[in-house]
Amino acid sequence: VLQSGIMLHSLVIGLTLSITSGADFTSLVSAISFHQVFEGLSLGIRISALPKQGRRSITYLKLVLYVLFAVTTPTGILVGLLAFTAGSGSSTDSVQMDAVQGILSAISAGMLIYAATVEMLAGDFVFGKLGSEGGVKRQIQAVFALLLGVLCMGMLSFIE
Q: What main location does UniProt list (predicted)?
């Protein structure tokens, strides 16, 4: 579920990037690059922690999951470019494109919030080692680190 949610999120990011232009494009590319690196690291940790059932089958599954994540954003960009250039030519209404970009960004943010809170945080805090054998001090440190990360990302949004 986490993999598919993050892949759908990356696809929507690619679609959003394909319809963005001007100064917004530059800031969006830098934000997406920074974001995708940490999202990829997080997902890579989850994929590498998959249980080992059969040596060969799990190795191929991990490779497929890595490749699927890597190609999702470029696929979204390609689909967006094909859809918006073929469908409406070069005379696309700016207000309409801004509305589409806003809707895609909202959908993308919602999917990421769901994946982060339900799949990752619940997995770590409730079902993972942090919840069962982590201890109160470790849990407080983890919550503090989480809130610090949220604060840093919020400050980055004000800088933009």
A: membrane
Whether residue 101 contacts residue 21, with contact meaning beta carbons closer than 8 Å, is answered with no
Residue 135 gets the label, from left (phi > 0), alpha (psi -120 to 50) or beta, of: left
User: What beta strand segments (E) does the chain contain?
Assistant: none
* pLDDT digits 0-9 by tens, 60-100: 888 888 999 999 989 989 988 888 776 555 555 677 777 87
Of 114, 123, 128, 81, nearest to 4 by C-alpha is 114
pLDDT at 8: 81
Q: In the chain, where are the structural domains located?
A: 2-127
| CB proximity list for 130: less than 8 A, separation 6 or greater | 124, 138, 139, 142
pTM of the predicted protein model: 0.67
State the Cα–Cα distance between residues 52 and 44, nearest whole angstrom.
15
Q: Tell me how far apart the alpha carbons of residues 145 and 46 are, in angstroms, rounded to a whole number.
A: 19
